[in-house]
């Protein structure tokens, strides 16, 4: 079920007019899983319900006894939280960086990193970090204002880099898609994107690419982040319900993410592969691939801004206490 935002704003105005975002009353619909989503931001979501957030929402709805899933769509740029979750038009943002104060975070259900995409059979296929000498003289695509730009500048590559916009209306522009198209056309030699986008677009390409999570950079802005689900501050029981679901169905969640090419990482930056789905992206997988690269051959089976890395400990109810250890970037309000 898909609901248009302008209609919802009109219909929901009276119902929610006396409630403030983060108030004391839980407003979660008990029958419908109401999801806040971007209408054109693959691999996360789109209006055709093809994103991994939407597959995950359908999965959770079944496990939580919801009768259906509905979506409130709004571009994930400035105003996203305020116009969706904050206006009580939906009850969950499926992907949100841990530590951002705009929402209340559930426990993290995956961890990933900014990644570089290179041709699988090219001279860059063996690189591990942006300072590797093989990148000297190469033109790298980069989304302006993201953490990898700092490392490109340190490596002396920023002068040749091709920048792409960070904040866009995804219904009109798509920086990730444009970057991959330039890579395919030979306009750039490598592309640096947020992990889920890197994995997805490499998988969709007719050319063979390798996606390398950038987890070997020197000290500086964080490149790997834990991703949670976002709920309203008042919705404490809802958060607990989701935390239990994350704990109980982590293996199934990982399988969904991996099927979209998301480069999942353990806490010690080892890749989680489809054969290693054991204890989840935020824990130690029972079996990991020792290689830092994730191959995305098109025949193989398989633009949220991250906020902060945290240290966590879980209690018996699935709750996680988080304390920020670093911060970079900001999520849309």
UniProtKB/TrEMBL annotation:
Comp. bias (Low complexity): 274-288, 323-333
Domain of life of the organism encoding this protein: Bacteria
SUPFAM superfamilies reported for this sequence: Periplasmic binding protein-like II (SSF53850)
UniProt KW keywords: Signal
Transmembrane segments: none
Domain Solute-binding protein family 3/N-terminal residue range list: 32-264
Span list, region Disordered: 272-333
Entries under PANTHER family matching the protein: ARGININE-BINDING EXTRACELLULAR PROTEIN ARTP, MEMBRANE-BOUND LYTIC MUREIN TRANSGLYCOSYLASE F
Name the UniProt record assigns to this protein: Putative methanol oxidation protein
Species this chain originates from: Fulvimarina pelagi HTCC2506
Lineage: Bacteria, Pseudomonadati, Pseudomonadota, Alphaproteobacteria, Hyphomicrobiales
């Amino acid at each position: 079920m898909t609901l248009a935002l302008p209609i919802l704003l009109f219909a929901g105005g009276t119902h929610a007019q006396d409630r403030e975002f983060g108030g004391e009353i839980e407003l979660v619909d008990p029958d419908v899983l109401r999801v806040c989503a971007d209408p054109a931001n693959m691999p996360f979501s789109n209006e055709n319900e093809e994103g991994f957030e939407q597959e995950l929402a359908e999965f959770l709805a079944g496990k939580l006894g919801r009768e259906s899933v509905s979506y409130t769509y709004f571009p994930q740029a400035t105003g996203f939280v305020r116009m969706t979750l904050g206006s009580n038009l939906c009850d969950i943002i499926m992907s949100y960086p841990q530590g951002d104060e705009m929402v209340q975070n559930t426990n993290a259900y995956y961890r990933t990193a900014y990644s570089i995409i290179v041709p699988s059979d090219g001279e860059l296929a063996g690189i591990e970090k942006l300072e590797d000498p093989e990148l000297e003289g190469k033109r790298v695509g980069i989304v302006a204002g993201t953490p990898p730009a700092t490392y490109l500048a340190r490596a002396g590559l920023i002068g040749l880099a091709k920048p792409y916009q960070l904040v866009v209306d995804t219904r009109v522009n798509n920086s990730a898609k444009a970057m991959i198209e330039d890579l395919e056309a030979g306009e750039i030699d490598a592309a640096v994107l947020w992990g889920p986008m890197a994995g997805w677009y490499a998988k969709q390409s007719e050319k063979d690419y390798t996606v390398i999570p950038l987890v070997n950079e020197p000290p500086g802005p964080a490149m790997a982040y834990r991703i949670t689900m976002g709920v309203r501050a008042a919705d404490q029981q809802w958060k607990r319900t989701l935390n239990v679901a994350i704990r109980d169905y982590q293996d199934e969640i990982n399988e969904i993410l991996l099927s979209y090419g998301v480069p999942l990482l353990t806490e010690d930056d080892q890749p989680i592969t489809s054969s290693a789905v054991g204890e989840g992206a935020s824990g130690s997988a029972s079996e990991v691939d020792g290689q830092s690269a994730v191959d995305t051959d098109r025949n193989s089976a398989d633009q949220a801004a991250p906020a902060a890395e945290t240290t966590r400990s879980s209690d018996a109810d699935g709750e996680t206490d988080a304390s920020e250890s670093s911060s970079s970037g900001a999520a849309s309000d």
